[in-house]
């Protein structure tokens, strides 16, 4: 990984999309916001990538427990392809299983349930990717 490279993590859902941003060194992901999955989603994420000077994009790879693509995966891949075409930033996919549940469980333990679970899930996905590839890229 290149020093000083910022990443965006995306937990894509058909209704809501969680977004996380890495620290400036690209070491850890932090929840940023939850966006509604509407016709403006692509433009909103492209603008955020520009504003935050993002150099890497990581999507949660949404599959069933048996490893087969689920119903969200086709829509996710189509969206990722459009995002890659608009930003010229290569898309990476990080396996994700139960990240939204993990986020909600963590919120319950902290006594703070909120609508940020999708952003927290995106941070889990992004941090997992950064830990896996941290000094190898």
Describe this structure in words.
With 137 residues, the chain is α/β, with parallel strands linked by helices. It has a single domain, classed as Nucleotidyltransferase, domain 5, CATH 3.30.420. The protein is built from four helices and five strands, in the order E-E-E-H-E-H-E-H-H. It has helices at residues 41-51, 71-87, 99-110, 117-133, and strands spanning 7-11, 16-22, 29-36, 56-62, 91-96. The chain has a five-stranded mixed β-sheet.
Write a compact overview of the structure shown.
This protein is of the alpha/beta class and 137 residues long.
What are its keywords?
137 residues, alpha/beta, Nucleotidyltransferase, domain 5, five-stranded mixed sheet, 4 helices
Return residue spans where pLDDT drops below 50 for at least 5 consecutive residues: none
Structural class, judged by helices and strands? alpha/beta
How many independent structural domains?
Answer: 1
Rounded to the nearest angstrom, the distance between the terminal CA atoms is: 4 Å
Could you state the CATH homologous superfamily? YqgF/RNase H-like domain
In the CATH hierarchy, the third-tier topology is known as Nucleotidyltransferase, domain 5
- The number of helical runs is 4
The CATH class, by name, is Alpha Beta
Report the portion of residues in β strands. 15-25%
